[in-house]
From TrEMBL:
Its cofactor is Zn(2+). GO terms for molecular function: 3-keto-5-aminohexanoate cleavage activity; metal ion binding. It holds the Pfam family BKACE. Keywords: Metal-binding, Transferase, Zinc. It comes from Youngiibacter fragilis 232.1. The keyword Ribonucleoprotein does not apply. InterPro entries: Aldolase_TIM (IPR013785), BKACE (IPR008567). This is 3-keto-5-aminohexanoate cleavage enzyme. The keyword Zinc applies.
Length: 285
């Protein structure tokens, strides 16, 4: 990464998630059309990357390949938009999707550039087992290698970093990696600055990384991440409120992140710059 990019910050907009109900915030986009339009609006507001989940007709998380394809087609129909597309590999309400279904869209939709790689199993939210067993992670890593998708390695606790080390040694992951530190999910590490610093201090040298906090952890983790030199993620997947009692929109959260980056004395990365930072091919239109 060139010195001219050292001061750049990637903002990822995580628009939808798989779990949060629209009853909590009517701005959560559910249909392919609404997700695509929200993604476009977030890119115009300053997001370099959009993190995509899909919902079915009932508003539940789904890994339906056709919904990913339709959303991405609608998004790319905006000819001025070069946003980096990241797709989940774990987007059902109960995280129990068939393992093949969790990977099919990466094999058939070449526009997907980044894919989530949740680096271990956990009791997610005190509600269900989030199953990312070693055999699945092997298959997912190989799929990403075969189809030129860069893993966005999501780390919910310290043990997941050792899982990544194992899969690097097995060759199903190759460095340097891009880490997304996820703090505040019940079953993982709490969203405290101390926990963020602990994970940051244990990242492999030369790693590119980003972080976010769930709910009320959003603001402290965002500012601490900027202080540590990381990239940031915002969006209704992680936080449905702008402030106490005030519901957010994805664009509101992106706009606040842009202001935070500016006040901090850094610059928001364009999507082209984000690709250079992450080692992705530039978009050909």
């Amino acid at each position: 990464m060139g010195t001219e990019l050292k001061n750049k910050v990637i903002i990822t907009a995580a628009l939808t998630g798989a779990v949060t109900k629209k009853e909590l915030n009517e701005a959560i986009p559910l249909t392919p059309h609404d997700i695509a339009e929200d993604a476009y609006a977030c890119w115009k507001a300053g997001a370099s990357v959009v993190h995509l989940h899909m919902r079915d007709e009932d508003g539940n998380g789904t890994m339906d390949r056709e919904r990913f394809a339709e959303t991405i087609k609608l998004l790319r129909a905006h000819e001025d938009c070069d946003v980096v597309i990241c797709a989940t590999s774990s987007g059902t309400t109960t995280y129990k999707a068939n393992e093949d279904a969790r990977m099919e869209h990466f094999k058939t939709i070449p526009e997907i550039e980044l894919g989530s790689y949740d680096a271990g199993s956990m009791n997610f939210g005190g509600a269900f087992l989030f199953d990312n067993n070693p055999q699945f992670l092997d298959k997912l890593g190989k799929t990403y290698l075969d189809y030129n998708v860069k893993p966005e390695i999501e780390i919910f606790d310290m043990g997941m970093l050792s899982n990544v080390e194992y899969h690097l040694k097995q060759g199903t992951l190759v460095g340097p990696q891009y880490y997304q530190l996820v703090l505040g999910v019940t079953g993982g590490m709490k969203a405290t600055v101390e926990n963020l610093v602990y994970l940051y201090n244990h990242l492999p040298a030369g790693s590119t990384w980003s972080a976010f906090g769930i709910g009320t952890g959003h603001m402290p983790i965002m500012y601490a991440t900027l202080a540590l030199g990381g990239n940031i993620r915002v969006g209704l997947e992680d936080n449905v409120y702008y402030s106490k009692g005030v519901k957010a929109t994805n664009v509101m959260l992106v706009e606040r992140a842009v202001r935070a980056v500016d006040v901090f004395g850094k610059e928001v990365a364009t999507s082209s710059e984000a690709r250079e930072i992450l080692g992705l091919k530039q978009l050909e239109r």
